[in-house]
UniProtKB/TrEMBL annotation:
EC number: 3.2.1.14
Name of the protein this chain belongs to: chitinase
Residue spans crossing the bilayer: 44-62
Reaction(s) catalysed (UniProt annotation): Random endo-hydrolysis of N-acetyl-beta-D-glucosaminide (1->4)-beta-linkages in chitin and chitodextrins
Stored PROSITE patterns: GH18_1, GH18_2
Keyword Signal: no
Domain GH18 positions: 189-505
Organism of derivation: Paraglaciecola hydrolytica
Top-level division of the source organism's lineage: Bacteria
Amino acid sequence: MWFTNILVQCDLGNFFAGDVLSFYILHNGTAINFFAQFENQMKIFLILVLATLLISCGGTSSDIPLQRPAQQPSPQTNLVPEVCRPAEQNSQISQGGKWQLVWADEFDGKAIDGSKWQYETNCAGGGNNELQCYVEDDANAFVAEGQLHIVALNQPVTGDSGWFGNSGNVVSRDYSSARLHTLETATKPRVVGYLPGYKGLTESIKNVDLHNLTHLNLSFANPNAEGDFLLNENLLCMPGYSTEHVKGDEIREVVERAHQAGVQVLMSLAGGVIPSCSGDWHRLLQSENRPQLVSKLINLMTDLNLDGLDIDLEGILLTQIDNAGNYTPFIQALSAQLKPQGKLLTSATASYEGGMIPIDSISYFDFVNIMSYDAIGPSWGQAGIEHSTYQQAVQDVQLWLHRGLTKQQLVLGLPFYGYGFGQYRSDYAIKDLVALYGSDILQQDVMGNLCAGCDYITYNGLVTLQAKTELALKHGSGVMIWELSHDSSRTSNILATIASQVAAPKTL
């Protein structure tokens, strides 16, 4: 990967006073902090090393100027930053035809981009008995004047001594700093999984290997009649499993577990079936009410430490909102609030007339999940066909590329469930099919006789799911799963198979 900004910060004043020297550089996708306390007898040697490093970083190069920010944003900062920057013209990378810029971060927003960077938070000492805790704090890591700043502060801090912040052993340090890792979402194929609140988030997440995901969508939150989402930090309209509505603490627990695994978490809004507790989306998105709803959505995301929002307005409701001219202005207003914070804005859409997000909204989404399933179901469609064929996936991918989705935006939906007809019950999770009929059922897409009036179950077996995944990787940026609780690592284990295929090296 290529990074456009490199930062070196050093505090020579504190160093000569017998305090600390801090050196930072972006290397192999990690913002690394070389931080140590030195004895007097080592200072001369280290000064010479530092001088060599600063010169080699570009102190004498005209195209890598040494710059000093006009003002240090944090009044607590006790380090004076010096900045080494590579040439501004990234286009040089692609000159000659041998190299192509895959992605870059110009740090030109107001905040660190959460879709590209993840904080490491612990007091583990980096394996080198370092003196600082890594924290997620704007005083230690921030964007200013087109540069990423990572700053060590001489201030007491406490935290977990474990690498993943979960050892239970709390320690104290005299210094705080920041360490950032790239999430690689600009190049790493996406595996997006939905998890409904009514399935029990905290229990369901225990059965999901989060390392097989890149994004987790918690579904579905709706506003009440006044447009509020939270009351006393609990969801007002998100049906739960053991409680009427999902509790805020339940969300936070799941978010923390996901973040520890490097997974970004989004709140999915609306859904295919709007619950009775929901307010009127059509009215709440009208121009006079829209700013208040957007503000409340931003508060929801912030209060629950989420990485973004997923908009899942569907069917007749979507059509009504769009026909009234309120869908795209809502998405535009939401994007304007989310993007400066480095947060994600995504959508789920069907591919039938009246169920598709409008074309003029596409550019505001980071990616769009294509719901390529449900051609037939218990109460709709003509019996005798499959509900989610490979041919349907091909048609949906072609449709959305034609409508304007870029390859990087397109995420293809995979069903982890099936529908039954005749003597069979109406719906099945893939794990239930395996439990009832054995793993061999995953080698086919239909159980029974596929015909009108016949007894059969339609679902996606492994061959079809893997073919769809290959299609998604070739023409899109990954796959989406509805939904995670339909799989089980003890029986079907479909998620692991798909994730392994996504992670496999690709021949270009």
